[in-house]
Amino acid sequence: MSNQAKKNTGYPYPMLNPPPFRWQAEPDLPEPKVHEWIRTLEPSAAHDTDWSRIDAAILGVPLSRSSISASAASETPEEFRRAWRSFTPYNLEEDIDLTPLSVVDLGDVRQHVTDISRCHQSIREAAATMQRHHPSTLPILIGGDHSITAMSIMGIKDTRPEKSIGLLQLDTHFDLRSLEEFGPANGTPVRNLIESGSLRGSDVWNIGLHGFFNARSLRDYADRAGVNWITMKEARRIGLETAVHSALTQLEKKVDTIYLTVDMDVLDLACAPGTPAGAPGGMRTEELFEAVRIAGTHPRVRGMDIVCLDPRRDINQITIKTGVHVLLSFLTGFMQRDKA
Amino acid sequence: MSNQAKKNTGYPYPMLNPPPFRWQAEPDLPEPKVHEWIRTLEPSAAHDTDWSRIDAAILGVPLSRSSISASAASETPEEFRRAWRSFTPYNLEEDIDLTPLSVVDLGDVRQHVTDISRCHQSIREAAATMQRHHPSTLPILIGGDHSITAMSIMGIKDTRPEKSIGLLQLDTHFDLRSLEEFGPANGTPVRNLIESGSLRGSDVWNIGLHGFFNARSLRDYADRAGVNWITMKEARRIGLETAVHSALTQLEKKVDTIYLTVDMDVLDLACAPGTPAGAPGGMRTEELFEAVRIAGTHPRVRGMDIVCLDPRRDINQITIKTGVHVLLSFLTGFMQRDKA
Amino acid sequence: MSNQAKKNTGYPYPMLNPPPFRWQAEPDLPEPKVHEWIRTLEPSAAHDTDWSRIDAAILGVPLSRSSISASAASETPEEFRRAWRSFTPYNLEEDIDLTPLSVVDLGDVRQHVTDISRCHQSIREAAATMQRHHPSTLPILIGGDHSITAMSIMGIKDTRPEKSIGLLQLDTHFDLRSLEEFGPANGTPVRNLIESGSLRGSDVWNIGLHGFFNARSLRDYADRAGVNWITMKEARRIGLETAVHSALTQLEKKVDTIYLTVDMDVLDLACAPGTPAGAPGGMRTEELFEAVRIAGTHPRVRGMDIVCLDPRRDINQITIKTGVHVLLSFLTGFMQRDKA
Amino acid sequence: MSNQAKKNTGYPYPMLNPPPFRWQAEPDLPEPKVHEWIRTLEPSAAHDTDWSRIDAAILGVPLSRSSISASAASETPEEFRRAWRSFTPYNLEEDIDLTPLSVVDLGDVRQHVTDISRCHQSIREAAATMQRHHPSTLPILIGGDHSITAMSIMGIKDTRPEKSIGLLQLDTHFDLRSLEEFGPANGTPVRNLIESGSLRGSDVWNIGLHGFFNARSLRDYADRAGVNWITMKEARRIGLETAVHSALTQLEKKVDTIYLTVDMDVLDLACAPGTPAGAPGGMRTEELFEAVRIAGTHPRVRGMDIVCLDPRRDINQITIKTGVHVLLSFLTGFMQRDKA
Amino acid sequence: MSNQAKKNTGYPYPMLNPPPFRWQAEPDLPEPKVHEWIRTLEPSAAHDTDWSRIDAAILGVPLSRSSISASAASETPEEFRRAWRSFTPYNLEEDIDLTPLSVVDLGDVRQHVTDISRCHQSIREAAATMQRHHPSTLPILIGGDHSITAMSIMGIKDTRPEKSIGLLQLDTHFDLRSLEEFGPANGTPVRNLIESGSLRGSDVWNIGLHGFFNARSLRDYADRAGVNWITMKEARRIGLETAVHSALTQLEKKVDTIYLTVDMDVLDLACAPGTPAGAPGGMRTEELFEAVRIAGTHPRVRGMDIVCLDPRRDINQITIKTGVHVLLSFLTGFMQRDKA
Amino acid sequence: MSNQAKKNTGYPYPMLNPPPFRWQAEPDLPEPKVHEWIRTLEPSAAHDTDWSRIDAAILGVPLSRSSISASAASETPEEFRRAWRSFTPYNLEEDIDLTPLSVVDLGDVRQHVTDISRCHQSIREAAATMQRHHPSTLPILIGGDHSITAMSIMGIKDTRPEKSIGLLQLDTHFDLRSLEEFGPANGTPVRNLIESGSLRGSDVWNIGLHGFFNARSLRDYADRAGVNWITMKEARRIGLETAVHSALTQLEKKVDTIYLTVDMDVLDLACAPGTPAGAPGGMRTEELFEAVRIAGTHPRVRGMDIVCLDPRRDINQITIKTGVHVLLSFLTGFMQRDKA
């Protein structure tokens, strides 16, 4: 479908490319795999779509030019789609079948090769369009580097400026580095959000910080801005689940919408070798799955992203499979939320 | 020795090849390494062997054509033998010296290149022969893919049809997929055993299931068949050791013989990158070692195998060394059993 | 589409799965990439297809259980389709634009997990169906291991038993090993074809043999059977192009149809690390491309396959990209043939 | 030294960072290795430098955000410096000792994380400064991706707009893709130079094009623009050395300055696995070394760069060592030029 | 600077090479990275150095010829220096800023290619010189293989023979193998120290032993010599922190100086793939960091080393980054000690 | 067999270990693979061995501690033995069947962990013993690093001091570095031989030198010492076969015995990634095979070695398979010599 045609059919996403490929599947399989369950949104079918029945929409954001260190995180959306085949949409431990959920794959935000601000603008517009055209559908962004989180939240805010947004961040880093020095890079999204007034520092909860990976000045900035943070060591002391519950409980008192961002480098480097800034001493895989599932259960969590996963550094798909598992763990919580 | 000659000397294993290589060792070393302690059974010496003094016999099963996804698990028996060099037969933490055990390496089951049912038949015959010729020697099969477990247990059952067998399975998967669709593949051995009447579903205990790797219908099948299962999350909640003890206690009430099967993909993918269907969120290495050791202590555990380890996907021998450690942990338990 | 439905629409390929994924592309791109130019044959569109206008049909054959050594060549069809994106259908050196050719991707032959003879039967039927339903369309099989060549040629022969077939084989090996010992494996296809009477030994030309990779008895068998062979060293002495031309000239005098089979291990191991039996001292990449292009120009070459490429052993996609280039080089010759 | 201080001492390169590390070496070694021979230019010593005695200046350009596919070519300058240790500055085959040459390492152009046009502007200014402050010193840029070539030549042109520049390009690609679509990316530098009037299409000679890696429209554009090009096949037919000599002879009649650009993907993928767009069928290593050496001998070659080498894709430093060898081969020609 | 010159300026380290490279940094950065904070000791500045103000001195020991299995641990000092860039000298979890510490990098002990005893002698002299010239500066050796620990402690002992030294060893192995058989290799340092009278067996505490990696005779030797050891399993039972505290408490009663040696293979192989004798079932990363930090807090710990890290076996820098983190965790404890 | 026993049976090799493993083979196979054809010499059978019927004896030399850069070349003998399985002893291109040759595997020279001179002494004694006890058996040493060549030739010289020895060296390096600086390392063997009077510089022919990998002073030393050398470029100009023939023709006039040494780094790095000092621009695989085969045909070539192959740096066994092919190519020439 040409861009012209897309506009004519009322397709709201001129800034999107469809997913690079669609899986071939028998329709109405009684027991689909994940790639058979998540459906591609065909532009031609867009205006026939009853969005009120779509629970979640996945948006690929193939941008990693804005990463401080060289990254191929732009290849993650495609690798996610390929890896869906290795998963069933049934969580045995929680006895949750995801197939009643209606999840669509919107494809990827079109990105420019040399104009990063244009890339960011398209992401922001895509996020805004999602809010505007189908506000009840939960947006899930698959990055890309962490700079996209600022664009995603700004897009939401553009659509509903009167609503306050809080951030639950699982990360090794504050992401509060200087905008003057770096611009909207993967080291600055939280600062970008605070300084642009998109959210308040005190509405940010960062869990998982550890080690020698944040300058002291960033911690000072965080404290001045009122950012709430719980180190990995502290989270283990009080229980990671408690830490997540506590953050959600605090946030629900203060904001309308909670956005969850998962930087894959929150994981221990041995558990997630495919990250551009991975570090030893981080979260373990099963801890992250549980943290994300809990976040998924909270009714006010209305957006999430998974970022900074570099498939070219990955080994034996460890990190890609872990990333997809994070997505499905979140949706498991989302299902559990629905039941409640 | 020609096949003809083998038959004449009363060597009971026409379906075996000797191990591809034998280590060169000084005899009667005071402190052997594992490759100097485990002895190759020479076909020419077979009828002089006093089997009542052989505690355990290792059988390589180089078959992975029956794996659903491409696998080089057929190369594992050879890689095990090479890796023996990196281990001493002394467990420091348990203060258990394995050298009083007499363990022989029987070599590998001869496998056909294009006739998988002939491969399976040979495995079944080898297992039956082990039971028949030296029933007091504990058989240990080194796979190969998980399809071999069905053949191993059927071979035991062929020899002693009146005895009931129970299965303790450490696995991420039920292995209950449809025989109609897959045949005797690595996704179907437990179903194969149940449907062939080799054991009852209620005599299966599977510990370690987790995540999004089993379709809901398989869980339903498991429940209908009475298969007992404990997820990773549940096992951690009650303690993995407790879970294993509990399974053994239940089984000993119901069956004559307990067979232990260890699918290496029960481990977290970061702990065992060399598995064809590895998944994040699994068991940790030291947890598996302890589970297997405990199983080894139980007097009714009279057979075991280690399967679905693909050395071509392995990294820095992490998975191969872990597999050998599983073998030695089991034998540590076996020694502790003898002492009791 | 269900299998039932397929039968009802007259779709001739009940033994095929559609390609696992289809690329998303803007229709009627002025300058497509290869993945945008090769079209997927939709089963639903099959009986509307005017096959007389289809020049070539690609068939994936995801079988490598029949490989002597462990191989993931079954993953090659999918990796080919992914790698198409990295190529344009325009050969700059020959100034040949492939886009006037109509090439369809039929998908993959459905393969059974544990019954290799059923796998082989399906390949044979698929090849026969191609000959029967659209004899003017050139079949191109993407393996899989070399056993598929025997099935492909037998399928052709089944359809037109009165026609004689010759084989141009680019290979490091004779592939004449004993059928009694191996069955229809990747070491026996040429013997299988000779002994089944599908073709005569004297209608086989093998170019590229070298080194220490064929037992003397195989050479003796080849000579007794009248197989024509030119070693790498001899081919370089007379010129590889001359060798190929010479083989084609000889074959065209004797057979109706020439079938080209390219075993990727004919290449030097450094040029094609992703092969299960790769060897040093083989053909260089540009030599293979030219040999295949020349074969493509010959009007009697009416079938071809590319086999024994194992993507799991590949490094940086060297071998996959080379395999796709072989396919496109052949089609370049095919275009040049049309012009002549 | 602060940026302020740099300006005060007359250091002309406010846009440069010093090399990230300097090798520690005993001064005045009789037989230095390459890292001991190439000297770091200390900013503090800049205004004492007698540039008329500096033969060549190396400039790192750590930019690969402008690469179409994800690339870590930004890490190449540092990897080059590390790899210098593995080379002596003596070419045995040519009996050329490079140590009489005075070569300095200027460090790296400072690059912005998210503003690519600012990155490009800094490269252009650095190139211009080199021309302005020490026009007799030959500039050598170590990329980075191929977009830097446009900036480098524009910088030269900025300084001496009246001089005509010709381009000798060793490449698999035309690099003539649409500026409208890509901007100043690694697929567009030659088009950028032509369309900006920096050089004429007829003053470009591209040697090494091959295979299916350039759309037909790019070839048409090349022909319309008068770009001269010799495919790999043609170059081998006439002799690669002849091809290079021919290009130089043509260029010297038409331009004042010849600029040599080496895209490492001109090499066969097996010879240079560490390139973002590597392809099978390319130039062999020794062919490239000789081509570059010949270019180095021509007195009108007054600038060169090496681009599109991605160390993260490299294997065993094959590509990095080859890149450094290209640099030294060029300098060997440069020495031979001096002698003539 | 020539060796002659070094002697004339009173530089006490004729056996040292300066670090192979020095990072280029702006002086007096408000927030340095680790490579900007640790300063290189320039030989020319050595006699102006006020050593009383230097808290710790890092010495690279690029020796791994004395490793039983092939090892490139000799490359670790350089890889450490490169990896410093990825760390800030601020520990967020402990809120400890390391920058008040003055830490110098002395460079590497000069090593001979074929005379291992001369290598060892140089290490011993370097360690002795450190004690003699700046006894209040804590020495930190970056190996190299474990044989260097014997030399380091002997050097300390040479300088202060009247002082008793105790060893806190974090290791999978006893390192008590036979000196007669191996000489001063990486399997013998503790035995070397005991048998040379440098320390008493009862002043050794080894924490982290596990699995099947120590012959029974070594355990017997350990017990006869009075070596104290706590297996991984026992350490986890009582708490690893408790184990470390207990060892330190015992040692402080008996010795003047405690030396900490960290063999990286104490870590689980999946957490530290880059070790020559890595084993499954070991310590986890965060456990090691905490153990080392606690050791750092003890005022009598006056020397430490990190050994048996082989960067050539490493994957994605997991082990190198972990090694640097061990160094910084120790210095965090050292800072906390100062505060107390 | 104990060392004591070995002495009693007249086994002449107290300094040898048997090969670490022996392949299991059916005896008297009509068509053996290489591992079934090369026989292990059992110490117990040594005094029954009729050495006059043994054509060649293979000796593993697992030493790489004496390598300038870290190397695991010590693991090559074992990797060779494993890789023998992938080869038949029949050279198709030359129609040479090697099985009439009687070749034994003597095992490995016992090496000390920390005393390199003792290692070297054992190699020298092993080589001397071979000459003394079975002078008509051609010794083939599998290194190990290049230092072993000096020991091998010295051992021959020790036994027959009156005989002159010449060296045909295929290498990227002169190996003439300073003995004072390096001792008997892998950079000095030729100098060691010249300075010890074991051979004359003018009796050395080095073919394959290239690039920037030899300091000018080494070339000057070579010329002063009369070493004959032909660069890669020159060898290609005159034909590599001509170069080898020429060297042999010159040497046969001057020496009694010619020794062939193959440093695997003579190959282009892309053809032999598994070498510690590999370089781009070297020999191609098929060129080396032919050079070595020609050397094998010369009746005065009475010893050879293959060195500096590091299996840990190898990729997909490219270099190991190439090394084994070199061995078999040499034996092919040896067979052709016998026929002449």
UniProtKB/TrEMBL annotation, chains A, B, C, D, E, F:
PROSITE patterns noted in UniProt: ARGINASE_2
PANTHER family named in the record: ARGINASE/AGMATINASE (PTHR11358), FORMIMIDOYLGLUTAMASE (PTHR11358:SF35)
Family: Belongs to the arginase family.
Swiss-Prot/TrEMBL keywords: Histidine metabolism, Hydrolase, Manganese, Metal-binding
Protein name: Agmatinase family protein
Organism field: Salinithrix halophila
Name of one Pfam family that matches: Arginase
